[in-house]
Design a protein that fits this description.
Length: 690
């Protein structure tokens, strides 16, 4: 009877544990990360009574947590990837909207500017039409500035988000470290702390949504967390900390530093996954390219328009003034070079744009080894050849010119800029110093309209041609086009080339060429085609080139014009300065033609137009946006599937738990009945001895 009572009591205890566990499951049905539990029951050791073994009841040997490390790992991985893609999508959708919007986009502004130029070219002497060009130029510059400000604001928001994320990562990492310690101590005492394990798994899952993790279990049950390429975040109860701080190469781009004890490591380039990985990936693949492409476009547009204006004459007969600010002003050339914060030297340098058609939308890295320089293009990590031209001392002034660095890719293609170190600054450079070169990064923020007087727009051509009245033949001449020159042109050079009353080009006695006796020193006249031997071909269109190197200024000019028809010996044509050409629109038409001219280059490209270059940026961002939307939708599906797989094992099902309650209630009543029978038997036995 005592044995029967003991068996009944053991059943009550086992069933009570099962009921308690079931109630615990039901209470935590909405607890994030909770894994349902079940009691593991086994028989007590049977007693031998001489004729065999008689059972002695049951006991609860474990409260098991229903979870799979494999399914949990799948959820973490899917959560990390989904968070990365969702963050990337959120960021790039903003950029896509900015670039393609009719208000903030650049295409409408450029179209309005060139449309206004087209209108002004039809009446080049009209001051109101010229004023409209200035107004549209200011509007276009403002569009570039505004778009840059929006992109820069997004970069600032990314920095803020990285700072917030590192704080959250640190808090969760400390929580995981504390839970590791508590779980290890509990396991050492012989128990499995299921609820603590659930809390740790939930914290790790939250961490995986912030940054990609590798999880490794220790023998004592602690989980070690590693980020990047194996950098330790949590090892046992030892926790490293993450910090977002201004980058050593570019303070405007925050970097992630992992601090373990007294050791700091920049892990920015190693991180992937989670929100942090999404932000860094977006910044590297989309935002930086948008900065540079927009800057490349604004620099090229400003430079080519200014150069073209400088090839014409304004209403006063002077060389056309620049419409936009100098792309190589003192402030700009200084901001394009940044020394790394950890440099041991203190050298500063300047970066000047030399050829906008050769620029590419990329930053560069310049390394100094104490003797020479090496460079790489950041966008594709391609090595770039550096040519160093040492400074030369001036014997008169005693000053030394700057040391100049020029850059070319593996195919010898110039990169469109130069870097200069003054003699004093170069002396401050130390071996191991690194410099970030950003030729185009801030271009869109610096474009502005400097011209205030509309009459200073150089719409007229610099030279004009005519036919002498007494010619006997049918020869005709087109207006000369300036093909190579300095910009702005020097009108004094034209005075020496053409003289006060112009120059005559007279057909020689043989009718095969020109008598060039009137041309000044430095001028050369060449018939380029269709003849290849400098011979005039009557009845065909002859392309004639007039090249001039001014003896005083050393400036070089090349004019091209056509001679057609059948000129006779002694016939002549005149070339002169286009004085008073206020109704001349040849250079204005050249300005309009820039819209469809392949002025943009980079990476050895043959060139493309402004609109196509900007359209390429919009298309690139749009393609990335469409792709990441597809990828993020797929990642959501994968995450749901992995979560469902995990929940099918670990989640609490209220119907199932309710059924268990009824079942265990019946077990409990049956065990109580056993005790009642044992009591009745015991009472009967006691009554027999009374």
């Amino acid at each position: 009877m005592a044995d029967l009572l003991s068996i009944g009591l053991s059943g009550l205890r086992s069933t009570q544990n099962a009921l308690t566990t079931t109630g615990h499951n039901i209470a935590n049905v909405n607890t994030p990360g909770y894994s349902r539990q079940e009691t593991i029951q086994q028989t007590n050791i049977a007693q031998y009574n001489g004729s065999g073994y008689v059972g002695s009841g049951s006991q609860t040997v474990d409260v098991r947590r229903l979870a799979s490390d494999f399914l949990t790992s799948q959820v973490r991985s899917a959560n990390s990837q989904n968070s990365e893609l969702q963050t990337f999508k959120s960021q790039i959708s903003q950029l896509d909207g900015l670039l393609s919007d009719s208000t903030t986009g650049i295409t409408p502004a450029m179209q309005k500017f060139f449309a206004t130029l087209q209108t002004a070219s039809q009446n080049p002497s009209s001051i109101p039409a010229r004023e409209a060009v200035l107004a549209q130029a200011q509007g276009m510059a403002k569009s570039f500035n505004t778009l840059y400000d929006q992109i820069d604001k997004q970069n600032g928001q990314i920095n803020d988000q990285l700072s917030a994320l590192t704080n959250q990562v640190n808090a969760l990492a400390k929580s995981v470290g504390s839970l590791n310690d508590a779980i290890a101590r509990s396991k050492a005492a012989g128990g499995a702390p299921n609820d603590l394990i659930d809390s740790r798994e939930q914290a790790i899952k939250q961490l995986s949504g912030m940054v990609g993790l590798q999880v490794v279990e220790q023998d004592d049950g602690a989980l070690n967390l590693f980020v990047g390429t194996g950098q330790p975040l949590v090892v046992g109860n030892t926790v490293s900390s993450m910090t977002a701080k201004p980058g050593t190469d570019d303070p405007s781009r925050f970097q992630i530093v992992l601090t373990s004890g007294s050791t700091e490591q920049n892990v920015t380039s190693q991180l992937s996954g989670g929100e942090m990985g999404g932000l860094l990936s977006y910044r590297d693949t989309a935002l930086d390219h948008a900065y540079n492409s927009l800057g490349q476009l604004s620099l090229t547009l400003a430079d080519t328009v200014n150069r073209q204006l400088g090839q014409g004459l304004d209403l006063s007969g002077n060389a056309g003034s620049a419409l936009f600010g100098d792309i190589n002003d003192t402030q700009s050339i200084g901001l394009r070079v940044m020394g790394r914060a950890t440099n041991t030297g203190s050298a500063n340098a300047t970066l000047s744009i030399t050829d906008t058609s050769k620029l590419s939308p990329s930053d560069y890295r310049l390394d100094y080894n104490g003797i020479g320089f090496t460079a790489r293009r950041a966008s594709d990590n391609a090595e770039v050849k550096v040519t160093v031209t040492p400074g030369v001392a001036d014997l008169v002034t005693g000053k030394t010119s700057p040391t100049t660095l020029t850059f070319a890719d593996a195919n010898g293609v110039d990169q469109g800029f130069k870097v200069q170190f003054s003699a004093d600054e170069l002396a401050k450079a130390k071996a191991g110093d690194v410099f970030s070169l950003q030729p185009t990064r801030r271009g869109a923020s610096q474009i502005k309209v400097d011209l205030a007087q509309a009459d200073q727009l150089g719409f007229a051509g610099t030279a004009k041609a005519g036919i002498t009245i007494n010619n006997r033949g049918t020869g005709a001449i087109t207006q000369p086009a300036l093909t190579t020159m300095v910009s702005p042109v020097n009108t004094a050079d034209f005075g020496r080339l053409f003289g006060d009353s112009g120059r005559k080009l007279t057909i020689n006695a043989a009718g095969t060429g020109f008598d060039v006796s009137e041309l000044p020193a430095g001028a050369t006249l060449t018939i380029k085609s269709p003849s290849t031997s400098n011979v005039l071909t009557p009845g065909q269109t002859n392309v004639v080139s007039l090249e001039y190197v001014d003896p005083a200024t050393k400036n070089s000019y090349t004019y091209e014009f056509n001679i057609s028809g059948v000129p006779q010996a002694g016939d002549s044509f005149t070339l002169g300065t286009n004085k008073g050409g206020i109704s001349d629109n040849r250079n204005a038409l050249n300005l309009v033609a820039l819209q469809t001219k392949p002025t943009m280059g980079g990476y050895g490209n043959t060139g493309t137009t402004y609109n196509n270059a900007y359209g390429g940026l919009v298309e690139r961002v749009g393609t990335l946006t469409a792709q990441v939307r597809v990828d993020s939708a797929a990642s959501e599906t994968v995450l749901k599937q992995t979560q469902d797989n995990r929940d099918s094992l670990s989640a609490v099902n209220l119907d199932e738990e309710a059924a268990k309650l009824v079942q265990f209630q019946q077990y409990y009543g049956a065990s109580a009945q056993v005790i009642k029978i044992a009591q009745s038997l015991f009472d009967t036995l006691l009554g027999a001895f009374r």
